[in-house]
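Work Package 3 (structural annotation) set out to generate three-dimensional models for the target panel prioritized at the project kickoff. During this period the team completed the workflow that converts sequence records into discrete structure tokens, so that structures can be stored uniformly alongside our sequence database. As a representative example, we reproduce one entry of 192 residues exactly as it appears in the project archive.
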Amino acid sequence: MRIKEEGQYISNSRGIFVKARQLLCSLAVGQEVNLGKRTLGKSSKSKHYLSAYRCLKTAELLVVVHSKNLASPCGNYKYRWQIETMFKAFKSSGFNMEDTHVTDSLRLETLFSVMAIAFVIAYDIGDEYEKDHPQTLKKHGYKPKATFRIGLDLILNWLMNHKNKLIRELKRILKKASGYWTGELEGVKNVV
């Protein structure tokens, strides 16, 4: 779980509380450090395992609370963030799933499955587009438009104006996916 490092106090190795930003000011860009078991917050009595990472692109500090024997907590957090990105697309950034009135669990499961497939297709199309048209990062270090959103906008445009382009892209994605299923893509090992 990520914690907000702004204004957050963490005990140092001597047990003295210091702000997270101050405690980790010497952490180099791209470096991850495991802080071990520390007290988080001045009023807390419990200790938690903490790790920190200084992001490569933005030099932003990432501090996570994790279980004891996790190999790369900050590296694993990236996977969780991808899930958060998908949920954002499901909700406010594209599919507006909260507007559905479906309550039957089987129908909801089908809806989620279709949305997950649509998300992957939109993300892949956005990713391919960004290879030829890289976005300029804003001052805060983030892209002006999410990769998924670019893909979704392209799909909607092609659906209205260029159906042949949409069909070509869907065929490309199916060909790519079939490589995963059969294990024919480079670097794919032990495909179940």
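Residues 73 and 186 are 28 Å apart (CA to CA).
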